[in-house]
Amino acid sequence: MKLKNKVLAVLLTMALVGVLGGCGKSNNASGNAGNATTEPTQAATDAATETPAATEAPSTDNLSGTVTITGSTSVEKILNDMIDEFTAANPDVTINYTGTGSSAGIADSISGANDIGASSRNLKDDEKTSGLKEVTFAYDGIAVAVNPANTLKNITTEDLAKIFSGQITNWKDVGGKDADIVVVSREGASGTRSAFEELTKLEDAGGLTENATVVEGNGNVQTAVAGNENAIGYVSFSYIDSTVKALTVNDVEGTPENAKSGKYVLSRPFLFVYNEGKASAAAKAFVDFSLSDDGQAFVEKHGGIKLDK
């Protein structure tokens, strides 16, 4: 009887061990199953976190490419500084600017030969029909330049028309000394010339005299006037320095403030023109930069008239 009881005890112990072992396996399997469901959930969470970064729009700061600008020489100093600043901030962008005159720059924009045309005059009616986008980035005054040795201080727009048309040929007829007037004008494509002739109504006086010395660029006008005490020419405000003297016009000094207010009659806009549908991101970004505070600082630095904010 005792032996039988011992055998039963052993059998019960073995059965209990088996049950406990089975429970352990069941618990481990359950744990593994839990781990299997947890890991994909975490991976899915990680993937969801990364999705916004993957779909973010590319930064507009990452500009690249070459932008070709042709046109007005009146904006040369302003543009050169703008270009240096813009390309320093966008090293993958190259901007090539060539001063060819406003009309040439506008024509290049119409034909697609450039990315941006620079103009120092308003577009003519036939140019406006080409569909170009116009952006005014500054205003400028046209200074009447004479040699510092010239004693004259003021001139009227009427007398300017007579001088540049050849009706007045001696300085004494406008209050100066007895000496022949040397007229210096710009080339036909010049926006400065177009604006000057329009504002002085030169065509009504007969147009530019055939005796005029015609040169390309504001700098060459400045040099010609500086080298001849009897010369007279017209240049952008930014080209007036110690080598030439600016006359008042209709008794109004040629200052940015007077030009912006309209008191000084010889003033005009500075424009960028371009084909909006074909312009690159870099070209559009440069135009936008010209309107920014940083861009406008260069307008003011070189004697131009900033836009009103």
From TrEMBL:
Q: Where is this region: Disordered?
A: 31-65
Topology versus the membrane: Lipid-anchor
Q: Where is the signal peptide?
A: 1-22
- KW 4Fe-4S (keyword) present: no
Give the PBP domain ranges.
59-293
Function noted in UniProt: Involved in the system for phosphate transport across the cytoplasmic membrane.
Q: Which family does it belong to?
A: Belongs to the PstS family.
Indicate what this protein is called per its UniProt record. Answer: Phosphate-binding protein
Native species? Anaerocolumna jejuensis DSM 15929
